[in-house]
Design a protein that fits this description.
mainly alpha; about 100 residues
């Protein structure tokens, strides 16, 4: 569910800059834009409010160790680890849980 708004951000960037303009010839395509869009989407919502629309829909909240919203730095770290976890097929989270 939360991927939909991030995908919308990517499509807005694509419409503004064109399909090939962000590839940079490195062969990564739109992956860096996708990563940035997900970071821009998740970090402030989880850091400030403790939830995203998907988490709100299912009654979930992100909390820090003190029980409060985690703050932007912790939310950024959490969001960045999503991609590390994704590279390994989401096994990092399964092992650490």
């Amino acid at each position: 569910m939360d991927a939909v708004p991030a995908l919308f951000l990517v499509l807005m960037v694509r419409a503004a800059f064109g399909a090939e303009s962000l590839d940079l010839g490195l062969g990564f395509g739109w992956f860096p834009v996708w990563v940035l869009a997900r970071l821009v989407y998740h970090t402030p919502l989880e850091g400030i409010f403790g939830l995203t629309p998907g988490k709100w829909l299912f009654g979930l909240r992100v909390r820090g160790r003190d029980g409060e919203t985690p703050g932007l730095r912790a939310a950024f770290t959490r969001s960045a680890w999503r991609f590390v976890d994704g590279i390994f097929g989401n096994l990092v989270g399964a092992v650490l849980a």
